[in-house]
Amino acid sequence: MTKAQPALKQIRMVHAVFLITQVLLILVILQVHPSEGGVAKELLFALPLVSASNVLILGGIRSRQLAAAREILRTAPDDDAALSRWRAGNILGFVCAESVSLFGLVLKFLGAQWNIAGLFFAVGISLLLIWTPRLDLPSQPD
Question: What is the extent of the structural domain holding 81?
């Protein structure tokens, strides 16, 4: 067994925790029932812009980190530096997706309707599902 196999299991557990957190955020909103009212138009413009910027910038960094780490891990699955870079890239993606949902939580507590805040949650959950941790490992002889 290479070092990469336990690392993949570990990062998949972290991924599952981030997915569970999404559900918990929605449950908090459903339990608290924040009042809906007018949200400043500036926030309705700024938060999607910040979210999109986060996804584009952090998603790009994540992609480069993962690509470089995967390339090394294909030939050397026990490379500690590449595994660390791979883990960091995945966690960066999870945090990026979570931040989008947190903006939805903020909007909901500021009075936004579900059709607005829900979009942030949908994007955050979708990103987490799209960015499910994967690692192509060389096949091990039996």
Answer: 4-31+40-130
